[in-house]
């Protein structure tokens, strides 16, 4: 796990989190903080919400150079740089082109120095995390300032846009949302620059 990486935990797969300490090879004393994107709000009232603990304190694992459930930030950064315009949004996708989850999707956005995103409105709810830079967002007619390390949310069907400060060298935002679930139910509706898009079950 490196700064900015996205790692998914597939259903019915054991997983745990940890960090090597100073007494372990390759470890150190510095803390690690990560953002968990959970589908708990969608399923907390369903009987499918439970967890199962592994028989040992730590799940045995082998180090690997790459994995289909790991999406390195360096790869996403290259895609954002290749995208045209002063604002770009690129979704995280599996190697087969599908969303990285059936309930939760993820994407990253780039705003150049002083740039702003289009005004958007969506039936999906989203959570944003600021990877780099500072700026502000207009959400439902109110302005909210943010900087690196901040996390904020966009409630469903609130109009919003992001603006990068002119002093910084651009902004990078990470986002996760419930678009895949709403799309599969035919409930996803988006509006950007006056153009409406509706999900279809056909």
From TrEMBL:
Chain intervals for the UniProt region annotation (Disordered): 1-28
A GO term, aspect molecular function: dioxygenase activity
**What segments bear the compositional bias annotation Basic and acidic residues?**
14-23
Note the SUPFAM superfamilies from the entry.
Answer: RmlC-like cupins
Please give the name of this protein. RmlC-like jelly roll fold protein
Q: Which organism is it from?
A: Akanthomyces lecanii RCEF 1005
């Amino acid at each position: 796990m490196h700064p900015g990486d996205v790692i998914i935990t597939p259903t019915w797969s054991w997983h745990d989190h940890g960090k090597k300490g100073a007494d372990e090879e390759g470890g150190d004393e510095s803390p690690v903080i990560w953002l968990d994107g959970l589908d708990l709000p969608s399923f907390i009232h369903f009987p499918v919400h439970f967890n199962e603990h592994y028989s040992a304190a730590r799940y045995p694992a082998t180090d690997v150079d790459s994995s289909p459930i790991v999406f390195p930030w360096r790869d996403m950064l290259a895609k954002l740089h290749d995208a045209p315009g002063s604002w770009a949004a690129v979704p995280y996708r599996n190697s087969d082109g599908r969303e990285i989850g059936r309930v939760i999707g993820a994407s990253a956005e780039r705003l150049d120095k002083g740039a702003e995103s289009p005004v958007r409105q969506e039936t999906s709810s989203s959570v944003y995390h600021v990877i780099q830079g500072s700026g502000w967002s207009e959400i439902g007619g109110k302005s909210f300032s943010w900087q690196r390390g901040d996390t904020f949310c966009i409630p469903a069907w609130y109009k919003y846009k992001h603006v990068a400060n002119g002093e910084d060298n651009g902004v990078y935002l990470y986002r996760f949302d419930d678009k895949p679930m709403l799309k599969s139910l035919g409930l996803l509706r988006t509006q950007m620059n006056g153009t409406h898009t509706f999900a279809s079950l056909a």
